[in-house]
Write a structure and sequence with these properties.
The protein is an alpha/beta fold. The protein has a single domain, classed as 3-Layer(aba) Sandwich (Hypothetical Protein Ychn, Chain: A). Helices cover 34% and strands 16% of the residues. Helix 1 runs parallel beside helix 4. The longest helix has 16 residues. The protein is globular, with a radius of gyration of 17 Å. It starts with a strand and ends with a strand.
Length: 174
């Protein structure tokens, strides 16, 4: 576990294709749900596979994605989720067992599509050099300590991540 106070700015370059530096992707992950984790991890690992420098800033419930225990138990909420393929009245989504059913449905889609599980995506991200930043401010708000995070997670404040994002070619809040 490292605590990051500053992230070095990229070398000067004039164009995206400039050979002086790699492209850079800065992602902010604020949702700690299964359907919130996949877009972040797909984008991060894809960019890394293309040779990009990638940093993901996990904040608020997004910290669950890099939490040692919680990342294996992410869920999909059917309540007020208009994207579900089976339209459900809000009251039905609140019934016991509906979250488990929606989560199982999404996991089934991912498995049938041969998509890695969240744990596998996290391992791929770490192996490909994706930097996983845990927001130090919201760690305190959410009652999360350094010992609760995956070993490769770096603790960084918003200013450190903004330094990283300032040099990004692409910045996304997912």
């Amino acid at each position: 576990m490292t605590v990051t106070t500053a992230v070095p700015a990229p070398e000067a370059g004039t164009e995206h294709g400039d050979a002086k530096r790699r492209r850079r992707l800065a992602l902010v992950a604020s949702k700690g749900t299964l359907d919130g984790a996949y877009p972040v991890l797909i984008l991060a690992t894809t960019a890394a596979s293309l040779g990009w420098e990638v940093g993901v800033f996990f904040t608020f419930y997004g910290l669950d994605i890099i939490h040692k225990k919680k990342h294996k138990k992410l869920k999909v909420s059917p309540l007020a989720n208009p994207a579900l393929p089976i339209p459900l009245p809000s009251l039905v989504g609140a019934l016991p067992g509906m979250t488990a059913a929606a989560t199982a449905m999404m996991k089934g889609w991912m498995k049938r599509s041969h998509m890695p599980r969240v744990e596998e995506f996290l391992e791929m991200a770490r192996e490909s050099g994706v930097r996983l930043y845990a927001c130090s401010t919201t760690m305190g708000v959410m009652g999360i300590g350094p010992e609760d995070l995956l070993a490769d997670a770096e603790i960084a404040g918003a200013t450190a991540f903004l330094d990283f994002a300032a040099g990004a070619d692409v910045s996304l809040f997912v």
